Amino acid sequence: MKKRKICVVVTARPSYSRVKTVLKAIKQHEHLELQLVVAASALLQRYGTAVDFIKADGFKINAKVFSVLEGENTTAAAKTTGLGILELSSVFENLQPDIVVTVADRFETMSTAIAASYMNIPLAHLQGGEVTGNIDEKVRHAITKLADYHFVSSDDAYQRVIKLGEEESSVYNTGCPSIDLAVPVLKSKALSFNPYQKYGGVGHEPDLSEGYLVVMQHPVTTHIQESRQQIEETLKAIDKLKLPTFWFWPNIDAGADGTSSGIRAYREYNELKHVHFFKNMSGEDFLELIFHCKTLVGNSSVGIREASFLGVPVVNIGDRQNRRQRGENVLDVECETIAISKAIQTQIKADIPQSQIYGQGNSGKRIAELLAQVELKFHKTICY
What we know:
Layout: E1 4-10, H1 13-28, E2 32-39, H2 51-56, E3 63-65, H3 74-95, E4 99-103, H4 107-118, E5 123-126, H5 135-146, E6 149-152, H6 155-163, E7 171-173, H7 177-182, H8 195-199, E8 202-203, E9 213-216, H9 227-241, E10 245-248, H10 256-269, E11 275-278, H11 283-291, E12 295-298, H12 306-310, E13 314-317, E14 330-333, H13 337-348, H14 363-373
Parallel strand pairs: 1-2, 1-4, 2-3, 4-5, 5-6, 6-7, 9-10, 9-12, 10-11, 12-13, 13-14
Antiparallel strand pairs: 8-11
Helix pairs in contact: 1-14, 3-4, 4-5, 9-10, 9-13
């Protein structure tokens, strides 16, 4: 039996963790052949390249697509999307995949979806049907309409994709593959690695014996002009609390230049002896790090997904995750220093239940099996 060629495109550092167990299951499946394409910000060292982690995990990269324009603004994002379409079209022409798999909601993901759709290549979309408070929601729903197969992460997302007019027979609630990585973390009794020694980073190295915070805050694409002011509010809150803190660098979204410059400027005039900054970590290590933290602070979807499964208290700042389905671990606050500080103090003391709204930890194998079984199609049946 001829193996079905599955081309998975990873376009950003978090996307690799989100799809890692799917890659592993495809690679191990007797009827599937994995084609792995790494593109856009996933290749850039300044954002924490995913390439080293991918190679260390034993995956072969079939193609690399350098398509990111400097600027970290709306114009650069739009042009990067266009460049991605051009480059990925050539990659797909060379690889001749049977199915292309794209992940989540980033602007680089749109490039994958458009290229595959116009080339009549069946398209599978992971993590569709969710809602947020910025451009990501538009991108995600647009990809839903371009995609032929939908592997969603929750019941809420499943219902929304069907309401968008997709055939029920092509929508599958598989759970989120990143939850697969979180399952072993639940057995962890203490942090098993030294973050300073293993990942370097910059800044002071506070004592972790009494616990620590983790901060991951990205720019909000609908509030680009406020990016610097928003990150300063969080910096002031963390500075005020003086708790040991691991701070992760923002992603490449429009407004990231304001977020980054705000961090650099604040560090220049404030010692922040209790804060250490990182670009990236392996997915497993990052989940272990947040599992043992006092509270996760910021606006990353990891606070909504993985932290919910792990029972980690989260302070979610602003509206980047607006309306996304969440567990009882999340406390939403405005982007204001006093509110953030109070919310952190509340969450540190909170008793957080674990939740399985984003899956039970078996998504990778389920998705691989579906990719082996689904009828190959690149058309829609009208079902409105």
